[in-house]
Design brief:
379 residues, mainly alpha, 2 domains, 13 helices, 80% helix
């Protein structure tokens, strides 16, 4: 397994990578649906476990993506091991409902370990190359040891299991930092930027499904105009997030390794928030559709909480995008305006017509970015 050229021209996502991403459409969708259920029932534990379940899906994608950027040989064995990882993703997705609703980790852990051990086999292949032997072996050892920890999680009593999950996630993050110290793998920066952009589109696509659901449910509904308004508002929010995320060139193209790790790891906030946005929109659709929902639509302590399920994920997406992608590419005024407007998006849950106000604030951020881009181009 020879390393790829990190400066290879015209490097783009392969058909296998795009096929691999389809399994994560399933995983993200299941996680978002279970988050919706947790929000509907007010189960704080379910919301916390959503963060862990989404980590499992996202982290498997991250590790495959960076490995493929450096060592994708596209031979038969590479394809077979990748398909095994896809099977692990689907098993993990199947285990998410039991994990979030009942705190049962067995099926999710089995799928996760299958994904990770298939990647260990890939690292052992890469380790046959003398230039990257130490790095690859470190990855193989580190990932295997942590998988033993995930298996032991199944026998840990439930109260202690939640703390153990936090420790295991920290160890997962530590493995690449330790492994890359000896020699950095030859990942392709433009390829990585494209892959992260594609995953952003996947998670935003879950929100578009919510828009479609609102429009479908509007047909024949006594409150169809409210559902249509919600669908239009949701489309503005999602299109605005797409516009903002891709407004500037990815900083991973010109950053050091510390910045590269920050880019790779902190995207968890962007991806997790985008998936949570879909759940929040579905929650708002349910608020309109439910019998007796008229009382819920009036002033109440519950309504801001429901709106916050949408506005807070949007705000987190915006703040993380500002920090990771936009901050270094904006003029002083725009650099200050974007995070202020993002915080106001989150706070919009407290005012009437919260989602429409949030959509207007997102439009304002788009305008700020466009004005900043044009002024900097002229200067």
């Amino acid at each position: 397994m020879l390393p790829r050229d990190p400066d290879e021209p015209h490097r783009a996502a392969s058909s296998l990578e795009l096929f691999f991403d389809l399994t994560f459409v399933v995983g993200v969708s299941v996680a978002a649906h279970e988050l919706l259920h947790a929000e509907q029932t007010g189960a704080v534990q379910g919301i916390v476990l959503y963060l862990a379940a989404f980590f499992a899906v996202w982290w498997a994608w991250v590790n495959f993506t960076w490995f493929a950027s450096a060592f994708d040989t596209d031979d038969w064995l590479y394809r077979v091991l990748t398909i095994v990882q896809m099977g692990g993703v689907l098993v993990t997705a199947a285990g998410i409902p039991a994990m979030i609703e009942h705190g049962s980790f067995a099926l999710g852990v089995i799928g996760y370990v299958v994904m990770r051990l298939a990647l260990v086999a890939q690292w052992l292949r890469a380790g046959r190359h003398p230039g990257f032997r130490v790095t690859a072996i470190r990855y193989a050892i580190g990932v295997t040891v942590v998988q033993i920890g995930w298996c032991l999680l199944l026998v840990v009593p439930r109260p202690g299991a939640y703390g153990a999950i936090g420790v295991l996630i920290a160890l997962e993050f530590a493995v690449p930092v330790w492994a890359e110290r000896r020699r950095v793998t030859p990942f392709h920066r433009k390829h990585i930027a494209e892959r992260y952009g594609l995953f952003t589109l996947i998670v935003l696509g879950e929100g578009l499904l919510s828009v479609a659901n609102a429009l479908i449910d509007a047909q024949g509904s006594a409150r169809g105009w409210e559902l249509v308004l919600l669908g239009a508002t949701a489309l503005v929010l999602i299109a605005g997030l797409w516009w903002i995320y891709f407004a500037r060139e990815s900083p991973v193209l010109a950053t050091g390794m510390r910045g590269t790790f920050a880019f790779g790891y902190l995207h968890y906030v962007i991806f997790g928030a985008a998936a949570a946005l879909a759940a929040g929109l579905e929650l708002s659709i349910g608020l309109i559709e439910e019998p007796g929902g008229a009382e819920a639509r009036g002033p109440s302590a519950l309504q801001p909480t429901i709106h916050a399920a949408t506005t807070v994920p949007v705000a987190l997406f915006l703040l993380a995008t500002w920090f990771l992608v936009l901050r270094g590419a904006l003029g002083p005024g725009a650099r200050r305006a974007v995070p202020v407007l993002a915080v106001l998006v989150g706070a919009a849950a407290l005012v009437p017509y919260a989602l429409q106000v949030a959509a207007l604030l997102v439009i304002a951020i788009v305008v700020v970015l466009e004005v900043d881009g044009r002024s900097r181009a002229v200067s």
